[in-house]
Write a structure and sequence with these properties.
By secondary structure, the chain is of the alpha/beta class. It has four domains: about 1-80, no CATH class; about 130-140 and about 165-200 and about 235-320, Threonyl-tRNA Synthetase, Chain A, domain 2; about 330-430 and about 485-600, Rossmann fold (3-Layer(aba) Sandwich); about 635-705, Winged helix-like DNA-binding domain superfamily/Winged helix DNA-binding domain (Arc Repressor Mutant, subunit A, Orthogonal Bundle), CATH 1.10.10. It has 23 helices and 14 strands. The chain has helices spanning about 1-20, 30-40, 45-80, 85-95, 95-130, 240-255, 285-290, 295-300, 330-335, 340, 380-390, 430-450, 460-470, 490-495, 500-510, 535-540, 550-560, 590-605, 615-630, 635-645, 650-660, 665-675, 695-705; strands at about 170-175, 260-270, 275-280, 305-310, 315-320, 350-355, 360-365, 370-375, 400-405, 485-490, 520-525, 540-545, 570-575, 585. The strands form two sheets. Strands 1-7-6-14-13-12-8-11-10-9 form a ten-stranded mixed beta sheet. A four-stranded antiparallel beta sheet has the order 2-3-5-4, covered by helices on one side. A hairpin with a 4-residue loop joins strand 6 (about 350-355) and strand 7 (about 360-365). Helix 1 packs across helix 3. The chain is elongated and about 140 Å long. About 35% of the residues are buried.
């Protein structure tokens, strides 16, 4: 506003200067205006009016001085340039030395600019060879309706793609193939010479590594299942490059329509989802792009989209769009991959394929406990099958033992009889809580053994055992201990039957069992706060979230939104311990036929029934009986039994009087004493007989109380 005012003032002063040049002694402004129109000289009506006022007040010399002063001040304020610097440049230009310095400065600027351009060309050269360029819709700021069609693609020289950097150490990411990958996109020159790099990682696995573990059959005469028992995946055509180009152009155009200027820098095609990496212009808020999720979904005609803002480790925003044709990931593809074969851990877990089509293999011992949650039919049970099959193809029964708890009865019963099972599959919820309590006791016993030999974890203990075997000092109590993986397929059923005991056992195991080699894998289809409590979440750091119905359920599982945007059928957010944000993975599929074939092979080739621990089963069953009876007993049971044995007389009225309880509770207490065999049955109006002595009751307390 100030510049406008001073510009108008400067215009008035220019008109006045023209009028002064023609005639400074103006008596009548209107006659001067008419004369200027005829002769095309002077400053017109405005110049004559100002000149007449100034001449009357200041005279000729004063008028010239004032007009020149106001003109200079207005010029400085409008141009925002110093008068001294202008005069200095003018003097330098008209002198020989100044002119030479000016030429040298210009030449130095040209040299610096040429060096910067050559440096940028060298840096972008390898990227240009393996990239394609989408025309920038921002060139010339065209309207959406005036967007020019994309020019034809021109092939360029292909080069190897750089492998994707690992996000954290626990994950083993598939490296790029040794063969030169096929180009998905080829370069296109945009109108504004602005280029966008679009990449698609080849979605074919690296050359299968022969990992048939029958070579290790001499170890304890255990035979691993062959890979031929598993089905091969069928190759299906994914999204072609033209479809991806069109989707990328639609995405960029949609954001342009809402005033968000971005550049697409990369495209990663996974089995079921394609991720577009966007680099926003300086000053564009991330929240503005996130708030446009519904509009992007509408314009792309996508089932649902997920926005990752920003992508960890990159200055880019990821928009994940479902593929039109999904590619099924078979379990055989994962275990034939070199990453699974090279994994040293005996409890390596082949999770699936990420957005770039690379195999993700994680180590359960580094998790060290895993929570799997999602809606019914989203892929939880298949994920558990993948985890179990990974262990069966990687470890012997002496190295890893499994405890399977399946309250739903039908999910894990297929593995009944495999040699890796420590006990038969547990289906009774009350017995399940006893199995968890046994694991707590086993953890305590292992820590006592570690303390005896001054080691801190299971690995150190087993190394000590190996040294003693080499020295000929092996004993029955000093032998290698296997890792134990406890798999619970439905936590909600256990929490309904015995919430307190189950939660206490899970929390205690998750806090202390890692160093003892005991790991928990918990799955549930009810991701609510009364099932996945705060204590369980705090002590189970690694999570896998499948498709859920709402953002509330997603926040219950992984403490953030995102799982409600998943597609189902194995589409998951894998959130291992030590990572800031979850990664999206397409889980592998294992059919029931494949599971039954592997289980039958293990039963036939290995003596599985003898592997069950009879003493462990007996302890768990005894603990289950004790837990069942203790839940039914009244809190006055022991005192009432001692009172009746001491008085040698049993009646409901005496229990009411001594313990100050009502008739109904006293009657139930008497029935419990009868079931325990402490008193006899009712005999009409006669008092009940006392059947136990003090010595017998003491023995009963040791066995059952």
């Amino acid at each position: 506003m100030k510049k406008t005012c001073f510009a108008i003032l400067l215009l008035c002063m220019v008109s006045t200067i023209f009028q002064m040049i023609y005639n400074i002694e103006v008596r009548d402004a209107y006659s001067a205006f008419v004369f200027s129109g005829r002769t095309h000289r002077g400053g017109g009506y405005l110049g004559a009016l100002i000149c007449s006022i100034l001449y009357k007040e200041l005279g000729g010399a004063g008028s010239v001085l004032v007009v020149l002063l106001i003109s200079v001040i207005s010029l400085i304020l409008v141009t925002e340039r110093s008068l001294l610097s202008f005069l200095k440049k003018a003097v330098d230009f008209f002198t020989v030395e100044g002119y030479e310095e000016d030429i040298e400065e210009r030449l130095a600027k040209k040299k610096r600019k040429a060096k910067e351009v050559s440096k940028e060309d060298k840096e972008t050269a390898p990227r240009k060879k393996r990239s394609m360029h989408i025309p920038d819709l921002r060139s010339g700021r065209p309207k959406p309706s005036q967007a020019s069609p994309m020019p034809p693609m021109e092939p360029e020289e292909k080069t190897k793609q750089t492998p994707i950097q690992k996000d954290f150490d626990d994950l083993i990411v598939q490296e790029e193939t040794d063969k030169e990958p096929k180009e998905i996109f080829e370069p296109v020159q945009s109108n504004a010479s602005k280029r966008s790099l679009v990449n698609k990682d080849k979605n074919t696995p690296s050359k299968p590594v022969e990992i048939l573990p029958q070579v290790r059959t001499k170890e304890g005469d255990y035979k691993f299942p062959p890979v031929s028992l598993l089905e091969k995946g069928k190759k299906t055509a994914g999204n072609n490059k033209e479809e991806l180009r069109q989707t990328a152009q639609k995405l960029q155009k949609t954001l342009e329509d809402f005033g968000v200027h971005v550049t697409i820098t990369n495209i990663s095609c996974g089995p079921s989802v394609t991720q577009f990496e966007l680099h926003p212009e300086q000053g564009v808020k991330v929240s503005k792009i996130v708030n446009l999720a519904d509009d992007i979904k509408l314009n792309l005609a996508a089932a649902d989209i997920r926005i990752e803002a920003p992508i960890p480790g990159k200055s880019a925003i990821g928009i994940e769009v479902p593929n039109k044709t999904n590619q099924m990931v078979m379990f055989r593809e994962l275990i034939e991959n070199q990453e699974f074969a090279q994994a040293r851990s005996k409890i390596a877990f082949a999770v699936g394929k990420n957005l770039a089509g690379q195999v993700i293999v994680s180590d359960i011992s580094k998790m060290p406990h895993l929570l799997i949650a999602g809606a019914t039919g989203s892929g939880k049970s298949v994920c558990i099958n993948t985890l179990i099959m990974s262990i069966l193809y990687k470890a012997t029964p002496d190295e890893v033992k499994l405890i399977m708890i399946d309250p739903k009865v039908v999910e894990l019963s297929a593995y009944q009889g495999i040699p890796h099972l420590l006990i038969p599959v547990v289906t009774d919820p009350k017995q399940a809580s006893s199995a968890l309590n046994w694991a707590v006791m086993e953890m305590g016993e292992r820590y006592k053994k570690f303390a005896e030999v001054n080691v801190r974890n299971l690995t150190g203990y087993n190394e000590k055992v190996e040294e003693s075997i080499k020295n000929g000092m092996e004993g029955e109590d000093f032998k290698k201990l296997p890792q134990i993986v406890i798999i619970v397929d439905e936590l909600a059923d256990l929490m309904m039957v015995a919430p307190g005991e189950v939660e206490d056992a899970i929390v205690r195991l998750s806090q202390l069992a890692r160093a003892a080699g005991i790991h928990l894998v918990i799955a549930t289809q009810r991701p609510s706060v009364n099932v996945i409590t705060g204590l369980i979440k705090a002590n189970v750091p690694s999570r896998i979230a499948f498709s859920v119905s709402s953002g509330v359920d997603s926040r219950t599982i992984i403490d953030m939104n995102g799982a409600e945007k998943l597609l189902g059928k194995g589409d998951m957010l894998f959130y291992p311990s030590g990572y800031q944000k979850p990664i999206r993975v397409q889980g592998a599929f294992v059919s029931d036929e494949e599971v039954s074939k592997v289980v039958e092979f293990l039963k036939e080739e290995n003596n599985a029934e003898d592997s069950y621990g009879a003493d462990i089963q007996e302890k768990i069953q005894t603990a289950a009986v004790k837990a069942a009876t203790s839940q039914e007993r009244d809190e006055y049971f022991e005192k009432a039994a001692e009172f009746i044995i001491d008085k040698d007389k049993a009646s409901i009225a005496s229990l009411q009087r001594v313990f100050k309880i009502g008739f109904n509770r006293a009657a139930r207490l008497m029935d419990q004493l009868c079931e325990a065999g402490i008193v006899g049955e009712e005999e009409g109006t006669k008092p009940r007989k006392v059947l136990m002595s003090e010595e017998q009751f003491e023995q009963y307390k040791e066995d059952y109380l």
